[in-house]
């Protein structure tokens, strides 16, 4: 591996914003520059191995992935260059002539790379992996955040749908009895709780903002629903929206 290949590889990794294509590029490059027959890159967060083929296997597929050797490299944090060092069912099937397995480390273990039947210039590979590990760690963190945001948006979308359904029910009730006019005499804290729930915040987040425990908030929500004559949390929020106590 010459300096230009190293530079081009790191340049791509620095500019790539997503974990999967960066990981695929990384393993493809490693296989190419070492003339390996097979190569795998494991990222801990996903529990999947990205292969040069390209195919993606679960880490537990012991006939396609050298699970024991990759796990050992990550736990003990050292390179493994000899297949006879560790017993692995994978080796019984493939019987590689040469291997290179190394952990990817940036503060903590990010994952591991495995190559077989190639020519391994250890010093050059170390340089590449030392520079690539923090990039992959950053992309892994970004992926985690992306997943968390997606899940949060899904929760908020479901909550909004339920609130809209509850609000529709209230409209139907009021249509049958237009004389209904309620005044709940809510405190600032109660309005804050309603607004926080409408924004999709979790109990522990609301509790932290009000400097109380999560069970306390849970009890206050139960009392608040009863006070507003709501059967569910979503109906309670819908009532608050309808009477312009809070905004979505």
Tally of alpha and pi helices: 9
Largest sheet: 5 strands, antiparallel
Residues in helix, %: 55-70%
Order of helices and strands: HHEEEHHEEHHHHH
Describe the structure.
The chain has helices at 3-15, 19-34, 67-76, 89-94, 122-176, 188-198, 203-210, 214-227, 233-242, and strands at 38-43, 48-51, 56-58, 99-106, 108-116. Mean pLDDT is 82; it is low at 56-60. The longest helix is centred in the middle third of the chain and has 55 residues, at 122-176. A hairpin with a 4-residue loop joins strand 1 (38-43) and strand 2 (48-51). It folds into two domains: 3-147, 2-Layer Sandwich (Beta-Lactamase), CATH 3.30.450; 149-242, Winged helix-like DNA-binding domain superfamily/Winged helix DNA-binding domain (Arc Repressor Mutant, subunit A, Orthogonal Bundle). 58% of the residues lie in helices and 12% in strands. The chain has a five-stranded antiparallel sheet with strand order 3-2-1-5-4, sandwiched between helices. With 248 residues, it is α+β, with helices and mostly antiparallel strands. The N and C termini lie far apart (57 Å). The chain has nine helices and five strands.
Outline of the structure:
This protein has helices at residues 3-15, 19-34, 67-76, 89-94, 122-176, 188-198, 203-210, 214-227, 233-242; strands at residues 38-43, 48-51, 56-58, 99-106, 108-116.
SSE topology sketch:
Layout: H1 3-15, H2 19-34, E1 38-43, E2 48-51, E3 56-58, H3 67-76, H4 89-94, E4 99-106, E5 108-116, H5 122-176, H6 188-198, H7 203-210, H8 214-227, H9 233-242
Antiparallel strand pairs: 1-2, 1-5, 2-3, 4-5
């Amino acid at each position: 591996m010459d300096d230009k290949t190293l530079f081009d590889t790191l340049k791509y990794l620095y500019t790539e914003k997503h974990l999967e294509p960066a990981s695929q590029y990384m393993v493809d490059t490693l296989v190419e520059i070492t003339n390996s027959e097979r190569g795998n890159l494991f990222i801990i967060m996903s529990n999947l191995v990205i292969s040069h083929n390209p195919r993606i296997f679960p880490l537990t597929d012991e006939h396609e992935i050298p699970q024991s050797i990759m796990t050992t490299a990550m736990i003990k944090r050292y390179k493994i260059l000899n297949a006879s060092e560790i017993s692995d069912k994978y080796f019984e099937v493939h019987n590689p002539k040469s291997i290179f397995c190394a952990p990817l480390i940036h503060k903590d273990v990010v994952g591991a790379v495995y190559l077989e039947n190639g020519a391994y210039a250890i010093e050059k590979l170390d340089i590449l992996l030392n520079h690539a590990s923090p990039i992959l760690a950053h992309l892994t963190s970004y992926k985690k955040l992306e997943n968390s945001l997606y899940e949060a948006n899904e929760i908020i979308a479901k909550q909004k749908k339920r609130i809209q359904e509850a609000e529709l029910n209230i409209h139907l009730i009021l249509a049958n009895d237009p004389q209904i006019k309620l005044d709940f005499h809510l405190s600032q804290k109660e309005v804050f709780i309603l607004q926080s729930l409408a924004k999709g915040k979790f109990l522990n987040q609301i509790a932290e903002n009000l400097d109380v425990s999560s069970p306390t908030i849970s009890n206050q929500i139960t009392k608040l629903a009863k006070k507003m004559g709501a059967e569910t949390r979503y109906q309670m929020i819908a009532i608050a929206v309808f009477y312009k106590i809070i905004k979505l």
